[in-house]
Amino acid sequence: MGLEGPEDLEQLAIKKINGGQVKEGLKLMLRAAKGYEEAGMSEDAARLYKYLGYVLLERTKSVEKARPSLLKSAYLYLDLIDGEISRPEVDIDLLDEYCFSVLEIFATLDDRRSLTKYAEEFAGIYEDLGASYQDNDDIEMAIKAYESAYRYYRLVDNIEAYKRIAETMITLYGQVAESRLESGDIKGAAEAFYRLAAFIRALFGYDIHFIEMMDTAAKNFERASKMAYSDGDLDGTTTCLVKAQYSYLLARNFNRAKLIGLNAARILYQVINAHRSRGDDEMASEKLVELTEALIGIGKLDDAMGTYKSALEGKSSMEFRVRVRLAALKRFAALNSRVDVLEDIENIEYYTDRGKYTKALELGENAMKLEELADVLEKIHEAEGVYRSL
């Protein structure tokens, strides 16, 4: 065959696996992974060992058969993490990918001891990074690092540590909100208030402190919608209105949430028709999902599912599926003051913000398995139909 290196082996392996010659493909994949490792291409080696492990797990249903490849991947990622944090300029997104892969692997292997050990270790790394960014007045990067530290401390139930991080995040998001208000970025300020509310909830629960901050977020999203409307930006108007609707919902201001939702739906019908008339099917689908969210928020689930079907006919994406589940979860959490569901929502949004829609969807699907949401989840699955696999 004249294969020159691991890249060629990987391509041939994929071709074999896709063609049904799985056993031969996996052998080639293992050779490619070893080739990458010998060439010092640790990231590619870690990626392939991980792929190999998950394919073996899927085919054999045996964790033990997948264990060697997955462990090899995890330890390569740990080496990559050590290398990344020793750099003068840490690529925090890349570090996130490496840390996420390690914890995902140990969770798959049901190795609670290693999962706890490394989650705690990673939390400490991110907390140190956050402090460094904060000292250098890089608030945006400090927030990003601290958010990861917070999630990992939550994962191992280190209450003292995650509450300490939550207090820091409240301060930082407060600074961001104030700065954005001063610069006239009302929507940006609303987003900051929304995030701030989540960390207030971590300290105080679903009480008046959380409700007041979420109400502040809602009012600012509403202000932003009016500014967008005055500028003739109907797309921006509806996006801000739906965000205001759900912020009011979580603030348990149900009357205001319903009024905002009805207004958003009314404008969205116009916006969708305008996009369709221009032949912009992709934007029409985006706005149909927004309309789905608005309708779920006001309790019109059957109408929402009809709209959702129409959205999927134009474009099916993982992000759409996550957003619909989030909408249903937020309404349920608000109506029932469910702190546990709010925590699920915050975890889903954390992964959504980082573009990890597969993980976000997995969490969303699991969160929807509450007995009280069984009918809603069934209707979502029915609406997704053949599009669920896309």
Automatic annotation (TrEMBL):
Organism: Thermococcus indicus
InterPro entries assigned to the protein according to its UniProt record, in alphabetical order: TPR-like_helical_dom_sf
Domain of life: Archaea
Name this protein carries in UniProt: Uncharacterized protein
Gene3D superfamilies: Tetratricopeptide repeat domain
SUPFAM superfamilies to which the protein is assigned, alphabetical: TPR-like (SSF48452)
